[in-house]
TrEMBL record:
CDD domains reported for this sequence: CYP142-like (cd11033)
MF term (GO), any: heme binding
Pfam families in alphabetical order: p450
Family under the similarity heading: Belongs to the cytochrome P450 family.
Protein name: Cytochrome P450
Keywords, comma-separated and alphabetical: Heme, Iron, Metal-binding, Monooxygenase, Oxidoreductase
Claim: Iron is one of the keywords in the record: yes
Domain of life: Bacteria
Length: 412
């Protein structure tokens, strides 16, 4: 009987790359390698997130991203997890999940926080805070790099961007972790907890918003929203949605790249030695680390009309997962060694970790600046991060990152 029941169980689709365990166990490389070689645009009829198309190689992904009217961010959202009003879901619009013209107007509101002049203005402060964090890390001792360095630096930056109370800044990390975990949709209790935390986030920020109304504009994101036609009159749900976007976008992505530079350079000691010998390689290494890690595995698009993509017939209403994590390992673009870190890779900047087209990450310059300064300050102190054991990874197909990473920091 046991054998008969086992035979009745549906077989696991090994090319369903939405399975959380692939990212928890860091075993996603092989199925994506097969997809790129055999079916770069492939239909998955059944998954925990329903049917979807996987777009796993560079060329078709760029094609989809270049056609935002045909492949909508707004029609179904930006993750494989569907909105379900029957399960207490509340739609919280955010500009990354809006189409033109709303997307354009709202993006334009926050973009001034990330201009080249703003990067110059913030550089000294980022460098000072990075140095202080590194100097607080005990040498030759077991520490958690994710918590001590990656989370702390990115949470500090978020607090500054929002003019957020310094003593409460770790709330931003807490909210980011709940907001970015799409696996929670599979559990009703956790889904409701997530909703509660998002409303708590909204209430906290509403208080900050109220304190800035009728005040002169300041460089922080909340003040920018208040003083813009596009975002001054958002309802409660759109307000929370855009906050979540800016928190997750500013926290999870940079923080997981900062963790990846510790883990990745430890995995490729010859490349680490090359970087330690020549700090002029740091700007290119920043791009290579972001490519190699790809801190958001996918974005979702929904077809607004029928469309043929690499010989596959996409139907109106179909859901597509754009697997940046795979396109950034595309051998046809980055070479046969795409799974490796090469600090002098000549085309590292071609990565798609920030997306492509109208939805390209608005904070990309700031992420690059923070990661670059971290590498520069480590080089100045001759610090080397030695990973002591395999890290605990995020078990999800959206945020691609690390929960904990035991390391020992030494000097070289």
């Amino acid at each position: 009987m046991a054998t008969a029941l086992k035979d009745m169980e549906p077989a696991i689709d090994l090319l369903d790359v939405s399975r959380a365990e692939l990212y928890r166990d860091d075993t996603w490389h092989e199925p994506f390698r097969r997809l790129r070689a055999e079916a770069p645009v492939r239909y998955t009829p059944q998954s925990d997130f329903g049917p979807y198309w996987s777009v796993s190689s560079y060329k078709p992904l760029v094609e989809v991203e270049s056609l935002p009217e045909i492949f909508s961010s707004e029609a179904g959202g930006i993750t494989l997890a569907d909105f379900d009003p029957t399960k207490h879901d509340v739609r919280m619009p955010m500009f990354i999940a809006r189409d033109r013209p709303v997307h354009t107007a709202q993006r334009r509101t926050v973009a001034p926080a990330f201009t080249p002049s703003e990067m110059v203005r913030m550089t000294d402060d980022i460098r000072r805070r990075t140095g202080e964090v590194l100097d607080s890390v005990p040498l030759n001792s077991r520490v958690d790099w994710v918590d001590l360095v990656s989370i702390e630096l990115t949470t500090q930056m978020l607090a500054i961007l929002f003019d957020f109370p310094w003593e409460d800044r770790r709330k931003l990390t807490f909210w980011s972790d709940w907001a970015g975990d799409i696996e929670l949709v599979k559990n009703e209790e956790l889904r409701l907890q997530r909703l509660q935390h998002m409303f708590e986030c909204g209430a906290y920020f509403q208080n900050l918003w109220n304190q800035k109304i009728d005040k002169p504009q300041t460089p922080d994101l909340i003040s920018m929203m208040i003083h813009s036609d596009a975002m001054a009159h958002m309802d409660q749900y759109e307000f929370i949605g855009n906050l979540i976007l800016l928190i997750v976008g500013g926290n999870d992505t940079t923080r997981n790249s900062m963790s990846a530079l510790a883990y990745g350079l430890d995995q490729f000691p010859a490349e680490r030695a090359k970087l330690e010998a020549d700090p002029a390689l740091i700007p290119n290494t920043v791009q290579e680390i972001i490519r190699w890690q790809t801190p958001l595995s996918h974005m979702r698009r929904t077809a607004t009309q029928d469309y043929e993509l690499m010989g596959q017939q996409i139907r109106q209403g179909d859901k597509l997962a754009l697997w940046y994590v795979s396109a950034n390992r595309d051998e046809s673009v980055f070479g046969a060694d795409a799974d490796e870190i090469k600090v002098d890779r000549p085309n590292a900047r071609r990565h798609l970790a920030f997306g492509h087209g109208i939805h390209r990450c608005v904070g990309a310059r700031l992420a690059e600046l923070q990661i670059g300064i971290l590498l520069e300050e480590m080089a100045k102190r001759r610090l080397r991060v030695n990973v002591l054991e395999e890290p605990t990874r995020v078990a999800a197909c959206f945020v691609h990152g690390y929960r904990k990473m035991a390391v020992e920091v030494t000097r070289y």
